[in-house]
Amino acid sequence: MLDMLLEGAIAFMLIAGGIFAFIGSLGLTHLKDFYMRLHGPSKTTTLGVGCTLIGSLIFFSQENGPVIQELLITIFAFITAPVSAHMLAKSALHHKLKPDPRTRGNPQELESDRPKHTVEEAPQGNSPLP
Amino acid sequence: MIATALWIALALFSAAIALNFYRAVIGPSLPDRVLAVDTMYMNSIALIVLFGIWVNNKDYFEAALLIAMLGFVSTIAVCKYLLRGDIIE
Lengths: 130, 89
Fold this sequence. Notes:
Helix content of chain B: over 70%
Order of helices and strands of chain B: HHH
Low-confidence stretches of chain A: none
Helix content of chain A: 55-70%
Largest sheet of chain B: none
Oligomer: heterodimer
Pfam families (chain B): MrpF_PhaF
Shape of chain A: elongated
Number of strands of chain A: 0
Low-confidence stretches of chain B: none
Mean pLDDT of chain A: 85
GO molecular function (chain B): sodium:proton antiporter activity
Number of domains of chain A: 1
Radius of gyration of chain B: 16 Å
Number of helices of chain A: 4
Strand content of chain A: under 5%
Shape of chain B: flat
Distance between the termini of chain A: 53 Å
Radius of gyration of chain A: 20 Å
Subcellular location (chain B): Cell membrane
CATH class of chain A: Mainly Alpha
Membrane topology (chain B): Multi-pass membrane protein
Transmembrane segments (chain B): 34-56, 63-83
Structural class of chain B: mainly alpha
Order of helices and strands of chain A: HHHH
């Protein structure tokens, strides 16, 4: 009975991790500008990989006692993902990548080449970005 | 049950890596490509862990840990290069 329950938990963790990682990569592929694309990998893929690693932890803990080492990768991924996302966003601002024109607000770093608008009246309609 | 879940997860992670590779090839700017490669190494960690479950061997976890650490350091190094034009000033 307990074996069955553990197997179900492992299978659920593996499939949930795969679905999360796939959704993150889907966002990376077809969102419009870089600042939107950053969301997918930095949040969703990290959660997906974390789920898979926890599934693996349960799998290897079944036979002889708990195996804690796999938690190391999970913790490391959860610590480092925001740091690398922050660095990537900084380098994108430094290169002055174009945001989608419907984006609200005017970041200071991009101010020179963007039309002025307040937060309430952001332009509507279709984006010219691919 | 685990075998089926393993196959589904392997297929999903492989599809994710294919999508990342597509973004790394077409990515219009340099940070896009760096982000795509960063995501690719995260997904490859999960692939290695899934392979470890498949062959029922605990040792593959060390390879995954190594990839995680080196990938993070290389992402930070490339970002630093894009920001400053130099890695260690």
